Structure to design on (165 residues):
């Protein structure tokens, strides 16, 4: 069962989680790249506004073909209690028919309805959400985020293996 991780990360937290997952589950991995400049305070404000209004993001084309993968992980940050727009756009564009999907987000402390929204977009794209998780990053350095991610990987493996046995 081959697995692939797609992740978008504006400031590195979700990238950190994705790398921990990548090592733990021995998957392939691809970063989702957004063409919009989201740096600095203006980038922050525009990102919040984009999420609030559900704006389509101008993401680069995905390089991985999905044909060879049974399991696809999709992760990104929470913006304004919603999924980040590069992640929403990605999910809308993918054909996820017949795929098992694991969703994950990072957030300061309040994920709002981000996972629920990602889940309904995934269903609309034909995917079957089998698991989802949140990593809260507020006041955590990279090492602690990696540690929290490892705990989430353990829970994920326990839950998914239990369901299948
Ligand atoms: C525009 C914007 C809005 C955000 N809104 C929320 C929010 O509603 N709830 C929350 O807990 N964190 C929020 N955050 C914090 C990020 O979700 C958090 O720092 C995340 O780990 C960043 O991930 P990244 O480094 O992969 O981009 C927001 C960040 C940005 C840039």
């Amino acid at each position: 069962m081959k697995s692939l991780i797609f992740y978008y990360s504006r400031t590195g937290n979700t990238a950190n989680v994705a790398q921990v997952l990548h090592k733990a589950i021995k998957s392939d991995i691809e970063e989702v790249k957004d063409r919009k400049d989201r740096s600095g305070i203006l980038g922050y404000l525009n990102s919040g506004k984009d999420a609030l209004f559900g704006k389509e993001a101008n993401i680069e084309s995905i390089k991985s073909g999905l044909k060879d993968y049974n399991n696809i992980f999709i992760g990104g940050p929470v913006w304004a209690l919603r999924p980040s727009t590069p992640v929403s756009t990605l999910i809308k564009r993918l054909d996820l028919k017949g795929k098992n999907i694991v969703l994950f987000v990072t957030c300061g402390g309040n994920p709002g309805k981000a996972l629920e929204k990602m889940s309904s977009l995934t269903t609309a794209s034909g995917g079957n959400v089998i698991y989802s998780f949140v990593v809260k990053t507020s006041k955590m350095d990279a090492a602690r985020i990696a540690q929290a991610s490892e705990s989430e990987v353990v829970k994920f493996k326990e839950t998914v293996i239990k369901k299948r046995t």
